[in-house]
Design brief:
76% helix, mainly alpha, MetI-like fold, elongated, 13 helices
Length: 293
Amino acid sequence: MTSVAATRRRLALSRFSADFRGHRAGMIGLGILVVSVALALVAPLFISEDVTSVVDATGEDFDGPSLRFPFGTDESGRSILLMLWWGSRTSLLIGFLAALLSIVIGMVVGIAAGHFRGWIGGVLMRVTDWFLVLPSLITALVLAAILGGSTATVIVAIGITTWPSTARLIRAQTLSVEARPYIERSKALGAGHWHITTRHVLPNVAPLLLASTTLEVASAIVTESTLAFLGVTANKTSWGTMLRASYDYGAANEGAWWYILIPGLAILAVVMAFTLVGRALEAVLNPRLRRAA
């Protein structure tokens, strides 16, 4: 029985891989993500946090792109290329962890609200609706300002303000799964809440969670950059703090277009890549979308 299940999983994974490779946009997005994450991971092997130090700067202020500084320099003579490379670690870390926190909260609340009917589900959905009507960016800004400017607080501020949409999506899928006949048979055979939610509901909502996670990461990166631009930073160099610094030091007035354009393009490229991968996953994992394609 175990070998049969393993064979089915291998066939499903092979079919999923083949379907995903058929989506050109998804493969392009995946390639950009692989390169971005790989560069962020190997950054400490080639450079150190000293590249963000004003004292160790070796270039001229607002020096344009050249062979020595391919992406130019900032207001202190620091290399934009090296700062962009080092800052990718913070931007991607916050994006991944904030999205993970949001997905976990949304998954737990959504499955619980869909599985437990009556007052428990009603209370959970009212809490979800309350968070849903709050302006997430303003709420995250206030929370991050109150909790302090650290990586952990920025992650928490983004994560606990972006989960309601995931919760409602997972609740709808949970209701659909629990309406199937085999769930009734499981209950008749004595299956408890934990068995039903972990053995039947969770595997069926997992593909939806996978697609939602990629989109949530993109949203979290944009939110982190927005918070950094508004002055709530993680006290570390990120793409958002670079944009904020370009505004504070008048890069536009100095004609230092590279200081504004390059961090913005980095954010755009990674967010677009996550979006492309998320859309491709939706098309592969959703049979109706796959048939339409």
